[in-house]
Amino acid sequence: MYSLCDTIERYIMRLIESSPDQVVTIQRGKLASEFDCAPSQINYVLATRFSVFRGFIVESRRGGSGYVRIRKIPIDRIEPIVAYLEEYERQLKESDVEDLLSWLERENFITHRESELMKAAMIKALEKVDDLGIPPGAERNQLRSRILREMLLQILSWGK
Amino acid sequence: MYSLCDTIERYIMRLIESSPDQVVTIQRGKLASEFDCAPSQINYVLATRFSVFRGFIVESRRGGSGYVRIRKIPIDRIEPIVAYLEEYERQLKESDVEDLLSWLERENFITHRESELMKAAMIKALEKVDDLGIPPGAERNQLRSRILREMLLQILSWGK
DNA sequence: CCCTTTGACCATCACTGACATTTACCATTA
DNA sequence: TAATGGTAAATGTCAGTGATGGTCAAAGGG
Predict the structure, then answer these.
(1) Are the beta carbons of A151 and A114 closer than 8 angstroms?
(2) Cα B105 to the chain's mean position, in Å?
(3) Which nucleotide does the CA of B1 lie closest to, via C1'?
(4) How confident is the model at residue B78 (pLDDT cuts 50, 70, 90)?
(5) Residue B121 touches partner A, C-beta closer than 8 Å
(6) Is B27 (CB) below 7 Å from strand D?
(7) Which ipTM did the prediction report?
(8) Above pLDDT 70, what percent of chain B?
(9) N or C terminus: which one in chain B shows less Cβ crowding within 10 Å?
(10) Cβ of B30 less than 7 A from strand D
């Protein structure tokens, strides 16, 4: 039932986890050959599974001896995220929330239950609030962002 | 005389019962083909027979390799929560939230941390949202209710 | 009348291929 | 030698296609 996308994600994830520095360098073409898929498929996996909101940084270089380097961002502190949220407020989409929560969960800042609880408040609850005068778009994203912010501050107060 | 609806219900039910984790993952299209019916018929069965109120949680993913996962949840002493849910449209004041949360915590439905998270989302986050066009009073209380409702549904899915 | 069933239309996700861009390396030449 | 330029080797981007599942109103049936 796993898609190719999922398989490649797990493959890269294992490489990172088994690396001392939480970094892995690959070659897009090689990896694509191994999985017998289009090279751009690798970009798709990187974009959807290894985004900043999920806690990863991807750098690359083109041309001869080019590479793609995927690095896991260490988070010992949540403050930077809170700060970032303030600027990003109007654009915080639902998928961003999901990605961020999966990151916090992976890093053991929150439990799975807590993650689901937060998702309920920020995604499900805000799905149909037009009748309360909160249309989809920037405004709803802002509200979502405020909720997330307060919850993060709460988490912050617990430490790790 | 059994309707198609009933037949599909029993089919899914058997799959769940014969699964160790009380979970089953299906593909809507495939199942619809097997029973030679419209795909949306599956949604109807899920909505009417496998709702939260009947003790099931349904998750799904669209697109390639999409799926529908149906999970049976342990139900124990959920009646009070359901009762609360049924009048979720009521105007929830901040103090109501506090009362409910302390009750949920006392009854071990949620942990202290979870309680604090919920409080952050329903009280702190909604303190200063005037600039988003959500003035204090009825409107804000309604929004609070929506958030609580979704979080309660989530808690419900955990059982106790 | 209420419950079932369907179909049309929508939303989302995975995957690909054509085309663009960047880089290393090497041959040619003033 | 230094500058030029061409070629091969990499990666990036983006729009398009197919495969799913979701929603809702309307028709059907007991």
Answers:
(1) no
(2) 19
(3) D30
(4) low
(5) yes
(6) yes
(7) 0.85
(8) 88
(9) N
(10) yes
